[in-house]
Design brief:
This protein is of the alpha+beta class and 141 residues long. It has one domain. The protein has 5 helices and 6 strands, in the order ββααββββααα. It has a two-stranded antiparallel sheet with strand order 1-2. A two-stranded antiparallel ribbon has the order 3-6. It has a two-stranded antiparallel sheet with strand order 4-5. The longest helix is centred in the last third of the chain and has 12 residues.
Length: 141
């Protein structure tokens, strides 16, 4: 056993602790496991891009969130370090999206994708048949 500043240094023990090092290592919290399993989803407001979305990024790395009290509850608010105020979201020239879903007009492509109506092949075929059934002479003057 070696002496370290008057204290004995025992093999397998961490300095300043009375238990072996293996027992003092940080155990992952249950919350850490829940966050790993959660799949990230776009979080637009209507069809507009939201700066609190997990995919929204600031190209100047000036985006941060604060918990701000509002009517007795705490709300997450996105702030900009460049302006010192609230983030204006997609109107900012430095805004971006990790999955490239931010359209030039500030809308989220993933939100618009959910709103569009998916037409089955059979319905599309019926529409084409009904258009083809018209006689060309009906449209001629």
């Amino acid at each position: 056993m070696n002496s370290y500043h008057g204290y004995e240094k025992r093999e397998g023990y961490h300095r300043g602790y009375h238990k072996p090092r293996e027992e003092h290592q940080r155990q992952p919290f249950k919350k850490d496991y829940e966050q790993r399993e959660r799949v990230l989803q776009p979080q637009p407001l209507g069809d507009r891009c939201n700066p609190l979305c997990p995919f929204f990024i600031c190209n100047k790395a000036a985006l941060f969130t604060l918990n701000k009290p509002f009517r007795g509850k705490y709300m997450r608010v996105a702030y900009c370090r460049l302006t010192g105020g609230e983030c204006i979201g997609s109107e900012c020239q430095y805004s971006g999206c990790k999955i490239n879903a931010l359209l030039p007009d500030g809308r989220c492509a993933k939100a618009l994708e959910k709103k569009t109506r998916h037409v089955s092949d059979e319905e599309l075929f019926r529409e084409l048949q009904s258009i083809e059934d018209y006689d060309v002479s009906d449209f001629a003057r």
